[in-house]
Each structure stands twice: as C-alpha cells, then as structure tokens.
Amino acid sequence: MRIAILGGTFDPIHNGHLAAAQAVAEAFDIDEVQFIPTFLPPHKPARTVTSPFHRFAMVALATANFERFKLSTIEVDCLEARYSVHTLKLMHKRYADSWFVFIAGTDMYEQIESWKEYRELFDLTSFAVVNRPGFAMRGDVAPVEIVEGHAKTRPRAQPGVYYFPTVECDISSTKIREELRRGGDARRWIQPTVQAYINKHKLYA
Description:
The protein is α/β, with parallel strands linked by helices.
C-alpha cells in the first residue's frame, strides 16, 4: 500500500493543502493520503491554536469529496503534543509493508534539523517537498530527485526525497486567519464547507 501523509495544525485547512496532496497522490499513484491534524503542535503555544475539535472538523469537511483523502485521528487521539518521528513509527506498525511519503513545504523542510530525531525520519519515510515562495529547496541534507509537472514517478524502494518545484503553495493559514479577523473574505483560499463552518462557530473573529 502506498500512503501519503500530510500532517499539520490545519488552522484552518486551505486549498494549498489539498492541491499539494492531490499532486503527490497522482505522481506516486497513492492509495491513500492521510491527513493528520495535530492535537497540539510541539512548536506552538497552546493558547494560540484553535481547538483540535474544530480543526479536525474542518479537515473532515475539506477532504470529504476526495476519494483518496482520508482523515486520521492518530495524533488527536493521543491528547498531547506528538512528534512526527513517533507518528511515523506508529504508522509503520498499523500499516505494515506499506510505502510512506511525507508531504512538506520547502519552508518546513528548510528546518528539518530542528525536527526531533530528524535523521531517523529518512529511514521511516520518503519526503515529497512542494515549493513555498521564498524558501529554496535544500539539497544538502539528502539526495533530491526533481519531479517535473504532473509526470508519474516510480518511487525508489528505499526512502528518498522528491521535490515538486511546479507545485507551489503560496497560501498560508496565518494570512487566512488575519484576513478573517479583519472581517475579510477567505473563500478564494478555503473550501465553501470550511468557510461555512468558520462562520457558524465564529472562528478567527
């Protein structure tokens, strides 16, 4: 089984997340893209993050119409901050003999050394890195294979790093929250169901 993992705070989930997941799913002929909302991001103060209940609900709404997109409770169920390395080890136990690819932006990958036990990550999963404007792709951590356009890619048996330079994610949850706090319209960045949920629960107001 081929499983792509897209973890994050998703505060809120936006169309950039969905586009990156779709591109990686098509490139590697992925069976499932598992969206994994964090219960509490280890690198963010708890008071600045929306309730995991609301974030989980928004991811469920945003991914509902995509056949290969699945919503995972693997981190939310822990009721505490979890590191990616621990989640990946648990994924290997749950989905034995599967091939994993972890989706990240160049902004996240740029700081890979700050991740807990980051060297071990390269034994647990491949990485699919999508372009975030202003953040160059690093080639000094591990060998990188460039994936051009929407071409099908045969993943190596051993974990590797794949860079998607044409899959550009120039949307950020931070900017969306700022726009909503100003009373602006975020419908161009998020799914209509997510916008309706935000309005109903008065999130980011």
